[in-house]
Amino acid sequence: MLDFLSAYYDWIKAIHIMAVISWMAGMFYLPRLFVYHAERAEVGSELDQTFQIMEEKLLRVIINPAMIVTWVAGLLMLSMGAFDWGSVWSWAKIVAVLMMSGFHGWLSKRRKEFAVGANTRSGRVYRLANEVPTVLMVVIVVAVIVRPF
C-alpha cells in the first residue's frame, strides 16, 4: 500500500496544502465573526441569528472538512516518511498543528455558546484569539520551510 501511495506523494502534498489554506482561511475568519457577534448582536435578535448561521456554516462546510483533509493528507505523508523524527523542526510543526487543532476545538465550543445565547466573552477576547492562528501558522511554515532547528 505504501508503494502505491508513494506514487501519489506529490498529489497528496498538493491536497494537504490546499486543505491547509482552506482551514486557515476559516480559522482567520471565525474569530473575526465572533468579534462582531459579541459586540453588535443582542441575543435573540435577527443579527444574532444571522451570525449564528454564518458561524455554523463556516465551521460545518469549510473549517471542519478542511481540517479533516489536512490531517488525513498529513498522516498519509507521515506514513510515507515525510516526518524526520530526529529533527526539532518536525516536532515544532507537530506541536503547532496539535495546538491549531485544539484552537479549532475552542472555536467550535464558542460557536455553541453563541448558539444558545451563552457567550460571556467580549469582542476584545476574540480579537486576541484572532492572533492565535497567525502565530501558529508562522511557526508551522517557518519550521517546515526554513527548518531553523
Describe what this molecule looks like in 3D.
With 149 residues, the chain is mostly helical. It has one domain. Helices cover 81% and strands 0% of the residues.
Number of domains: 1
Strand percent estimate? under 5%
Number of continuous helical runs: 6
Gyration radius from CA atoms, angstroms:
18 Å
Please supply descriptive tags for the structure shown above:
149 residues; mainly alpha; 0% strand; elongated
In short:
The protein is mainly α and 149 residues long. The protein is built from six helices and no strands.
How does the SSE layout of this entry go?
Layout: H1 2-6, H2 9-40, H3 46-79, H4 88-115, H5 123-129, H6 132-146
Helix pairs in contact: 2-3, 2-4, 2-5, 3-4, 4-6
